[in-house]
Amino acid sequence: MIRRAVFLADGSSDVPLGDHLETMCAERGVEVRVATPDLRRLPKHPGHGVADRLNAVLQLDEAGFDLVFVHRDAEKQDPQVRVDEVRRAVREVRADLPAVPVVPVRMTEAWLLLDESAIRRVAGKPDGRMPIGLPQMARVEKLPDPKSTLRQVLEAASGLEGRKMKLFKSRFGEHRRLLLERLDIHGPVQDLCAWRALEASLDEALASFS
After folding, report:
1. 99 phi and psi angles, rounded to 5 deg
2. What is the Cα 65 distance to its own chain's centre?
3. pTM of the model
4. Could you tell me which CATH class the domain 3-105+193-207 is placed in?
5. Which residues of 106-135 are buried (b: 16+ CB within 10 A; e: fewer)?
6. pLDDT digits (tens, 9 = 90+) for 135-158
7. Is residue 32 within 8 Å of 208, Cβ to Cβ?
């Protein structure tokens, strides 16, 4: 049986996470089709709250979904606060809908700082050897601003200067999305606390289908 899921992404550049979540479900023996709606196309934006966005999606699709993934960066909050916020909001809308919070510590960019090879490829210098200041894995979930760090390492990896660097900087959203598409879900990210919490939540949600 194919299950249907909706992925409420934090932003448009986070959409590739939906494909990774679909793969993770398949690897656990559950076939799930993950839809990532672009709520910006609605005549009236539902707002940024989880409950409001989920309500808008369910109104658009009368058949509904079997599962919901909700992506929320922890930012300055304790990750558990965000997890509880997500679960509470989903219960308000549909108590019987299994919810999987996707909550990186601080920001999703922390997950993108683990693969030096991918960063160099996206920066256009796959064979580059210049130091790029990549933080140690043990520190990525403690960085105060992973997005800023990711910008810095991409710029360092590019080796560009002047007008070319200015253009490169303007493409950060594109570079970030490429890195997310290429995220190795079987790689170092599995050693991060937030990723382990995601996998545990996913296992719990999928167990409700058996």
Report:
1. -120, 135
2. 20
3. 0.93
4. alpha beta
5. bbbbbbbbbbeebbbbbbebeebeeebebb
6. 999 999 999 999 999 999 999 999
7. no
